[in-house]
Amino acid sequence: xxxxxxxxxxxxxxxxxxxxxxxxxxxxxxxxxxxxxxxxxxxxxxxxxxxxxxxxxxxxxxxxxxxxxxxxxxxxxxxxxxxxxxxxxxxxxxxxxxxxxxxxxxxxxxxxxxxxxxxxxxxxxxxxxxxxxxxxxxxxxxxxxxxxxxxxxxxxxxxxxxxxxxxxxxxxxxxxxxxxxxxxxxxxxxxxxxxxxxxxxxxxxxxxxxxxxxxxxxxxxxxxxxxxxxxxxxxxxxxxxxxxxxxxxxxxxxxxxxxxxxxxxxxxxxxxxxxxxxxxxxxxxxxxxxxxxxxxxxxxxxxxxxxxxxxxxxxxxxxxxxxxxxxxxxxxxxxxxxxxxxxxxxxxxxxxxxxxxxxxxxxxxxxxxxxxxxxxxxxxxxxxxxxxxx
Length: 390
Description:
Elements: H1 11-39, H2 46-66, H3 70-94, E1 96-98, E2 101-106, E3 113-115, H4 116-133, H5 135-141, H6 146-165, H7 169-185, H8 190-213, H9 221-230, H10 241-252, H11 277-285, H12 287-310, H13 314-338, H14 357-389
Antiparallel strand pairs: 1-2, 2-3
Helix pairs in contact: 1-2, 1-12, 2-14, 3-4, 3-6, 4-6, 4-7, 4-13, 6-7, 7-13, 10-11, 11-12, 12-13, 12-14, 13-14
């Protein structure tokens, strides 16, 4: 039994996971108890138990993926990429529609729904790590034309971002930026990176004019425009309402907070338990705890950097950095929105916000990073054995 629950990999990453999960339980309960009273006939513990079950599933996913040899992810990513593209296409056409956005896909006969973009992000970054890790060998052997290689890396990133952008602009941008980061980290030539950015900008311009001329094709277009227009504005009655309430929450008691469970703005913030949970953290626990949460994400990034430096394979290094970067970037976007540095995006705070499959997929990504860390120790043990034999 002890072996089953043995935490392999980087101990610091495990510690951050448990700290954020514990914080999640406290904050979700505090931020959602009044909402649960209204929606669940006075059952103020509903969202707490829901989040607890999600954390258990996430822990299981992280534990499972940390035990899979990370080289398996390399060959699996190619097959899964085609599956992801199919799923995203199906979601766009027949997905569950919420707020004019088809983001959710329901698994038949189970009633379980998930955002296909969460799965797509992991698969794409794994596929890119695989492709880029092989670039140097292909360059040296001249076995294939250079433009063909680059197209096989760029095209999936552009296609997946394009399939997501119609229903979720912020997630599409998050995936595109994360993909660009992996390419830059993998030392893809600057001229190709500039070509990728130019293609992305051209696509954005075309998307704007298509949405402007035919709103039915892009039902979320008006929402995007209003969020950008409201960014930095003073309208407390329309799209800027949530941001205004978040500002009030943060300004209530900035240093030490109002103490746990004493938040007043959780009643007024529609997404207090998800998109704006960071504002409630600062209101109840103060600026110091809010800063501590930020530091925890930076620690994740630092540990991924150390793992990637020690990795014997380029694939392992790119996989660890790419997955952690996407998690940390999402966290910074969420916190940036809460403190009014960025327009509203709808991105949850990883491992903290109330979230179903989003929490599980984030845990899965951390498990894959842990798999790379476990691989380091095995590689070190093999090297030590060989040295003794010699």
